Amino acid sequence: MLPPVANRFVAGKTAAEAIDHARRQAKLGIDPMINLLGSHHGDRATAVADAEEYCLLVEDLAAADLDGQTAISVKPTQLGLECDETLFRDLLADVIEAAGVHDVFVWLDMEEHTTVDATLDAYEEFARTSDARLGVCLQADLERTLDDLERLADVPGTLRLVKGGAYDRPTGIAYTTDPQVDRAYRRLLERAFETVEGTVAVASHDPAMIECAIDRADGTDLELQFLMGVRPRAQRTLAAEWDVRQFVPYGTRWKRWAINRAKRNVGFTARAVAETVVPLRNGETFEEELGVSVPVSESGLESTGE
């Protein structure tokens, strides 16, 4: 059982809890993207263990028979990239194969700028040479990303566009101010809708960017993505008209993730604390029950660094 603040942003410690959460969201028309928390594994055994858990997770997702399209999200450094690139590719291949057997989509997350080349090379190879349903994240705050988009536009996979990652960026490779990142993200969205043949996944909590994406989609398949626990009412509302997917993390390594989400989303943290004092009825949210509104971070959905 997670504490009240953490359980806003983390589904639980076990895969079963994550799948239970996903089942509830599926009834609202929101598809899951389940992630086992953990990254930057420096030893082979831990990376292998996480890959094995993902292989079991896709079996459990298939058995759960959820409505909609199920997906998992994996991090390159979780699958051994910091140990050895060959190990990373071998473990990723195992996960992709297992997911393919059970018709589960695989999202490959993006981490530090030093991992971009290895991540995109692996994505392009597996997307072009397998029948797997596969997607990768692109970070708008990196100055290279428009070129990466052009490279990947005709790859038979799906691109997930975020504003940036929760990582330090050396001078000269990234946009560093909010206005710069916003402009870069708009350019990335516009170019994606001009060049990408398949689905474009827009991962942002920023209402202005969501509106921009909807206005410019113009026939392109559009998926909107959110983190668990952030703007839940918006997720439900948008799911009535658009494909919506929610990032659902779980695992014993939950503390750092929950703390980071709480810091970035002060409004929901306040609600979580308040709801321990003011019980809600019939699944209402705190603001619906009390008739108040607490500001929530409108920042773009970062790729999920821990």
From TrEMBL:
Residues in coiled coil: none
Keyword set, alphabetical order: Oxidoreductase
Domain Proline dehydrogenase per the UniProt entry, residue ranges: 19-252
Keyword Oxidoreductase assigned: yes
Keyword Nuclease: no
Cross-referenced Pfam families: Pro_dh
One annotated GO molecular function: oxidoreductase activity
Protein name: Proline dehydrogenase
Organism, scientific name: Natronobacterium gregoryi (strain ATCC 43098 / DSM 3393 / CCM 3738 / CIP 104747 / IAM 13177 / JCM 8860 / NBRC 102187 / NCIMB 2189 / SP2)
